């Protein structure tokens, strides 16, 4: 089916580390062509999912060796849900907006986009240093940095939903709201588990 409001199929991209880095740097600066650096197939999605899952496996091994308790197991399962929930929510929203064909590439790019917090942290630290030199307290400067980083990540999610799923700005905002609420719910469920896991 084709028509004026039916988006064209995304172009294929060569999947390698250099393309992923280039795509992230483009998307991080609000350049939609960064999506072309990612593939939209199952292997690409699983490759994007492998770093957080691998980290959780290592964390699980370390945690269960030290604290083989039921709260620790539940916490690890909640962390797995925290990793898998955003793709599930975004897939649901893509189907709602009738943009399912764009979801695989968008989801792959979104999985890798969490690493953009690292380059974003550098200018945030520079701003912190400037504020401290101006006499702003550490507490105030810290809160401001958290707000700036949070605002940037929200903007990045919105931009990627807008361009990656080829939807309107408003629909992108609704998608980000759904993702944020889902993450907050998982965080709320995990919070009471932390004292139980860390208790001596």
Structure report:
The chain is globular. Helices cover 74% and strands 0% of the residues. Helix 2 (42-66) packs parallel to helix 4 (103-113), helix 3 (70-96) packs antiparallel against helix 7 and helix 5 packs antiparallel against helix 6 (138-164). The protein is built from eight helices and no strands. The longest helix is centred in the middle third of the chain and has 27 residues, at 70-96. The protein has one domain. The chain starts with 16 loop residues before the first helix and ends with a helix. It has 200 residues and is mostly helical.
- SSE class: mainly alpha
Largest beta-sheet details? none
Please identify the oligomeric state. Answer: single chain
Between the first and last Cα atoms, what is the distance in angstroms? 61 Å
Tell me, what's the shape?
globular
What is the residue-averaged pLDDT? 84
Number of helical runs? Answer: 8
Radius of gyration: 19 Å
What portion of residues belong to β-strands? under 5%
Secondary structure: number of strands: 0
